[in-house]
Amino acid sequence: MLKNKLSIQISIEGKGDKSFVVPSFFVKYWKKLAFSSLGLIVALFGVIVYLATKQKEEAITSQYTEALHEVRQKNKLLSMRKSESEKEIGEAKKSFNKIDSTLESINKKMKKRGLKTIVLENAGGPVEADEENIELMSSYYEEALTELEKKLENLPIGIPHPGRITSKFGYRRNPFTNRGREMHSGVDLKGRTGDRIKSTAKGVVSFAGYEGDYGYVVKIRHANRYETRYAHLSRPLVRKGARVAAGDIIGLMGSTGRSTGPHLHYEILKNNKKINPQKYFSF
């Protein structure tokens, strides 16, 4: 307790003099006390500013961390989607490659037979691009094309020689006497002696040699009870029992047997019945 006190008299206009009693300690050390108080206020203000700044920094850091986490999550999601898209594209390419490889195999056989190649075209309607439908479409086309390829192998489709047709299947005027009518059981294709003659389907050679009006002839048996005959050859290039594929060279064009000049007499039989070969010239 401060014992030493001082009396301070203050004159206030209109209200007379007022006296205050204060400890002498405050009067003696007022400057130090004033500076100390000022320093305390400045320090307190500094602490308040520091705390406010730190709180603001923490809030900004928190917002930045949240934003950074969100960006990373989005990047991760985009990366996953990109990976999935690349996988889907890869699967789609594999699916269409299956179709392409099968179609390419068929088209090679079509070219060997002198036929136009197959081109898949859009049939209209909405196109579903999801992976499931791509797989279904691929499976559908692959199965259909594989089945078609099997049928094409054994079916006598196409032309054995690209020459012009000089005599069609059916009744015609006798080419030797130019009188009367006779049944022509095949199709005549004009060419030059030595032109190569192709098999129109996969099969087994049942005869290769000289046979009456046919001259030199090659006969091939195919699946589903089909048979093809290639007559008036200058010579066969295959033997009986040989296995041939569609497009294989089986003989050379000539004018042997009952013939007026170099040409190929081509026949197709189904169940031992002769049918019009021209129906099988196009696919």
Describe it:
- Helix content is 40%, strand content 28%.
- The protein has 283 residues and is of the alpha+beta class.
- It has a domain of 116 residues: Glucose Permease (Domain IIA), CATH 2.70.70.
- Strands 3, 6, 7, 8, 9, 10, 11, 12, 13 and 14 form a ten-stranded antiparallel sheet that branches.
- A hairpin with a 3-residue loop joins strand 9 and strand 10.
- Helix 2 runs parallel beside helix 3.
- The longest helix has 83 residues.
- The protein is rod-shaped, with a radius of gyration of 52 Å.
Write down how many β-strands occur, each being a DSSP E stretch of 2 or more residues.
14
Number of helical segments?
A: 3
Oligomer: single chain
Distance between the first and last residues' Cα: 125 Å
Radius of gyration, whole Å = 52 Å
In the CATH hierarchy, what is the class of the domain at 165-280?
Answer: Mainly Beta
**What helical percentage do the residues reach?**
25-40%
CATH topology of the domain at 165-280: Glucose Permease (Domain IIA)
Q: Tell me, briefly, the overall form.
A: rod-shaped
The SSE order reads: EEHHHEEEEEEEEEEEE
**Unreliable parts:** 122-129
